[in-house]
Design brief:
Layout lengths: L4 H7 L3 E2 L18 E4 L2 H5 L7 E6 L32 H18 E11 L4 H10 L3 E10 L15 E8 L10 H7 L8 E4 L23 H11 L5 E4 L6 H8 L3 E6 L2 H12 L6 H4 L13 H6 L8 E3 L6 E4 L5 E3 L2 E3 L1 H9 L6 H4 L1 E3 L5 E3 L1 H20 L2
Parallel strand pairs: 1-2, 2-9, 3-4, 3-8, 5-7, 8-9
Antiparallel strand pairs: 4-6, 5-6, 10-11, 11-12, 12-13, 14-15
Helix pairs in contact: 1-8, 3-4, 6-7, 7-8
Length: 396
């Protein structure tokens, strides 16, 4: 396979040959990331520094156990997975290989890092058992529903129209990145579900060699990797793919402002990945910034709104219809019909409920007598105090 034009024009990515250690290079160094390591994944994983990676995406061999060629009804051969890298002597050999690379991935993950593994019914259950046995903590399993799956040509089974992804944290105590609000906005303000309808890789995105054959039999669609990285990583994070193939993970990582490390033993795949990633244009920082969840923002107590002069003791607060009225007290509490307490406690009592988000329930009158949620004052307070809060966090 000859795929070099962009690479030969000086656009090549750094390639580490087998057994070049990155252990002593700080993860913040540009020499540590955005490179492809050519070599065996088990040997090369051992050379990576512990606690250095934010996210691992792994698309390991399926161990399909194919017995012969698969033919279409017209007797043409299906270009499937029949490569040497997908062959193992036994289930025991596959399990030992799986546990070895997973253990190394756990070692290189940061304490709050995430692991994603994708597989078919041939291997995902064996991989899942190893994931749990090694102490990873399962967050979700996600079903990738293929809109255009390959038919079952023999007519002996259901059409295999999905693959399963496992999302796991490094351990039970980990708090992995999850950009909930970003995914909810992506999904038209609905919670993102664990069944993802995405086409298989085809058309111009599918890499091919000079003979028109697929450059890699199991190339994953960029849309799948984009969703994973948008959901569980942040700009600047380091993403490791120990089975890099033709570089889908690297291409998406570069576009979304993440750094990557790819490990791949096949030289032809490495060349294809180099050429592919070299021409990817990274999006601007503004375009890739995730939505910041309110739960992740600095806490602003209601009393601080008073200290900043946004409201004053004696001012009135109302519900959205102005049917309920309370008075702001000098100590930051509010008083409704003799019931005094926080904006949340009093809001709950006024509605006869067990709990209440006082920031969204209570409203104040603007200069134009419009009723506006006091949550807008909290947002304004955060903006005013942002520089001070950043310094406090930096030196904490």
């Amino acid at each position: 396979m000859r795929r070099v034009s962009k690479v030969e024009q000086g656009l090549a990515l750094p390639v580490c040959r087998s057994q070049i250690s990155l252990t002593d290079i700080p993860p913040s160094s540009p020499d540590f990331t955005d490179r492809i390591i050519e070599g065996d994944c088990l040997k090369e994983l051992r050379l990576l520094a512990s606690n250095s990676v934010d996210l691992v995406f792994a698309d390991p061999p399926y161990n399909l156990q194919l017995g012969g060629d698969l033919l279409r009804p017209n007797n043409t051969r299906v270009d499937g997975v029949n490569h040497e890298w997908d062959r193992f002597d036994s289930f025991a050999a596959y399990d030992a290989f799986t546990r070895s690379w997973l253990a190394e991935c756990k070692r290189v993950l940061k304490p709050n890092g995430s692991l994603w593994v994708i597989g078919s019914y041939h291997n995902i259950f064996r991989v899942g058992a190893a994931v749990q046995d090694l102490g990873f903590w399962l967050q979700n399993d996600v079903v990738w529903l293929k809109t255009n799956p390959m038919p079952n040509f023999k007519g002996t089974r259901f059409t295999n129209a999905h693959e399963t992804l496992i999302w796991a944290a490094r351990d039970e105590k980990a708090r992995p990145t999850f950009n909930y609000d970003t995914l909810k906005a992506f999904n038209d303000d609905l919670q993102m579900r664990s069944d993802w309808l995405i086409p298989i890789c085809s058309g111009p995105e599918r890499l091919r060699d000079d003979g028109g054959r697929k450059a890699h039999p199991t190339q994953k669609p960029e849309a799948l990797l984009s969703r994973i990285l948008l959901a569980t990583s942040k700009p600047g994070d380091i993403v490791l793919d120990p089975f890099f193939g033709t570089g889908t993970t690297g291409a998406v990582a570069k576009r979304l402002g993440r750094r990557f490390i790819g490990i791949e033993r096949d030289g032809d795949y490495v060349k294809a990945a180099q050429e592919r990633i070299a021409v990817i244009t990274a999006l601007s920082e503004d375009a890739i910034a995730p939505i910041v969840s309110k739960r992740a923002e600095p806490r602003i107590p209601f009393g601080m709104v008073l200290e900043l002069g946004m409201l004053n003791p004696g001012d009135a607060l109302f519900d959205a219809k102005a049917a309920i009225k309370a008075q702001i007290m000098a100590d930051g509490s509010i008083n409704w019909s003799g019931v005094r307490g926080s904006i949340h406690a009093v809001g709950a009592r006024a509605q006869g409920r067990a709990a209440c988000n006082g920031w969204t329930f209570w409203h104040y009158r603007t200069r134009h007598s419009e009723l506006t949620p006091i949550d807008e004052l909290r947002s304004s307070a955060r903006k005013r105090l942002a520089p001070t809060m950043a310094k406090t966090k930096e030196f904490a």
